[in-house]
């Protein structure tokens, strides 16, 4: 514990929150490199279709889901300091490895880059082989990326529970969770330009190396609050104020909480409520994360490195970032000003945020007025998602003991990954099919690929309200889980 003996409370918990924010930012930038380079840089080189890209993003999602099933338990077992370090090392290494996929594909098929490009342009059988090999190589690197990235949110949520009292967790979670938006915001402003100036390979390398820099900061700054030299007694008392539900650890010799067994977690309705919330909504965010650059390229002809595409995607994620942070404060308002308990206040806020995605029904029709219309609408939808997500994560800390938080987070993230697999793989198949059918494929007045986008937008629009209703049925009122010794 800190030797600082002053009456003024330190605020080191916000430094830790900033580290979580940086890790999440790097996490999403690493994830975005492929989505911002595949359509205009990689696909022409390897003759990829939408279905190929859907295969890569879909299987990334399913492997991410499987990894999340165990990532939380790994973080609980390894501890947040070591567990987070291992996670970011693995995903940063996987990100950098993408850069070698093109070279390895050529070596396997025995062609030089120039020969391969000519074969792809001619659409020969050799081109099909190169495309297939490249897809599997990229997919392998994505699986390594997914394995490491699965540890980010279980570790970050566990750290948030360590450093913040319940009433502040949604706000602090919304801050670090906004790193997803900042990462998505910084990515289109940097990655396409890097790819154009230095090649798509260097874009993967430069962004991937950022994770190694973060590791040094984490080793230097992180320790548990009651052991940190930067946290004084006043701040520790603030962090551990939830003594009414037995969450304060003994300051001299912390007690070990009994952990809920992995399979036993599935016997609680609270677990299934979180699973439903993640399964129904995570795929929406991942769809826009992976497909937004391709959407503006397909619908309006703006390549990812064009000024207009960068401006549209930047605007989209700027709206998401700015509005989503305020969403994390709304439950605090309900608790402090309206006297609600944290869970009721959180569910009230989530109902409000579940209405934002309904705007997605108008994204495709409004696009006929201007491409700025869907950019703004998707930004509002993304803000609703991020605010929803921050509060959804915080429901775990409301109802589960700290010793099980990372495990429940991992289980929920697995469900979110499954939902993301369905929407990403399904979208790739749908777009390839719709494009091939042309005017013979229609939906709500749209034909061909635009009709495919309209179908997916409709699914995204109603997913949150359906998810909220099911969650409310499963857990109608606040009911924390107490594990008996």
Automatic annotation (TrEMBL):
Keywords noted in UniProt: Membrane, Transmembrane, Transmembrane helix
Gene Ontology MF terms in the entry: hexuronate transmembrane transporter activity
Membrane-topology descriptor: Multi-pass membrane protein
Domain Major facilitator superfamily (MFS) profile: 16-479
Cellular component aspect of the GO annotation: membrane
Residues annotated as transmembrane: 53-71, 83-106, 126-148, 169-191, 203-222, 279-296, 308-331, 343-363, 369-393, 405-423, 451-471
Protein name per its UniProtKB record: Hexuronate transporter
């Amino acid at each position: 514990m800190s030797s600082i003996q002053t009456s003024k409370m330190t605020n080191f918990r916000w430094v830790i929150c900033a580290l979580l924010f940086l890790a999440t930012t790097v996490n999403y930038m690493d994830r975005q490199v492929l989505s911002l380079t595949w359509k205009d840089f990689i696909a022409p080189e390897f003759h990829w279709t939408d279905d190929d890209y859907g295969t890569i993003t879909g299987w990334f999602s399913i492997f991410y889901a499987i990894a999340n099933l165990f990532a939380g338990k790994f973080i609980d077992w390894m501890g947040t300091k070591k567990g987070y370090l291992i996670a970011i090392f693995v995903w940063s290494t996987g990100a950098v490895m993408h850069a070698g996929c093109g070279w390895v594909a050529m070596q396997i098929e025995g062609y030089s880059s120039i020969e391969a490009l000519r074969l792809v342009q001619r659409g020969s059988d050799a081109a099909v082989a190169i495309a297939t090999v490249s897809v599997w190589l990229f997919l392998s690197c994505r699986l390594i990326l997914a394995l490491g990235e699965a540890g980010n949110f279980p570790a970050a949520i566990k750290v948030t529970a360590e450093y913040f009292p319940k009433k502040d967790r949604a706000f602090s979670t919304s801050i670090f969770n906004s790193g997803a938006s900042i990462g998505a915001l910084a990515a289109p402003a940097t990655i396409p330009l890097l790819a154009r100036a230095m090649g798509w390979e260097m874009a993967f390398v430069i962004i991937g190396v950022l994770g190694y820099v973060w590791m040094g900061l984490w080793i230097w700054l992180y320790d548990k609050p009651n052991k940190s030299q930067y946290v004084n007694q006043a701040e520790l008392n603030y962090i551990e104020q939830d003594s009414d539900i037995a969450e304060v650890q003994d300051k001299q010799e912390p007690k070990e909480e009994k952990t809920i067994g992995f399979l036993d977690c599935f016997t609680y309705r609270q677990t299934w409520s979180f699973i439903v919330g993640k399964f129904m909504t995570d795929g929406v965010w991942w769809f826009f994360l992976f497909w937004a650059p391709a959407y503006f390229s397909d619908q309006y002809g703006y390549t990812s490195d064009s000024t207009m595409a960068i401006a549209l995607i930047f605007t989209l994620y700027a709206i998401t970032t700015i509005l989503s942070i305020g969403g994390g404060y709304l439950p605090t308002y309900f608790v402090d000003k309206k006297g609600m308990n944290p869970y009721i206040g959180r569910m009230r806020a989530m109902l409000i945020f579940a209405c934002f995605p309904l705007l997605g029904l108008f994204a495709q029709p409004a696009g006929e007025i201007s491409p700025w219309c869907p950019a703004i609408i998707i930004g509002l939808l993304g803000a609703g998602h991020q605010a929803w997500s921050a509060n959804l994560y915080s429901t775990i800390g409301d109802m589960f003991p700290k010793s099980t938080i990372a495990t429940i987070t991992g289980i929920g993230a697995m469900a979110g990954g499954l939902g993301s697999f369905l929407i990403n793989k399904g979208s790739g198949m749908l777009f390839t099919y719709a494009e091939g059918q042309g005017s013979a494929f229609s939906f709500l007045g749209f034909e061909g690929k635009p009709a495919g986008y309209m179908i997916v937008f409709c699914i995204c629009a109603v997913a949150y309200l359906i998810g909220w209703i099911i969650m409310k049925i499963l857990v109608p009122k606040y009911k924390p889980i107490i594990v008996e010794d």
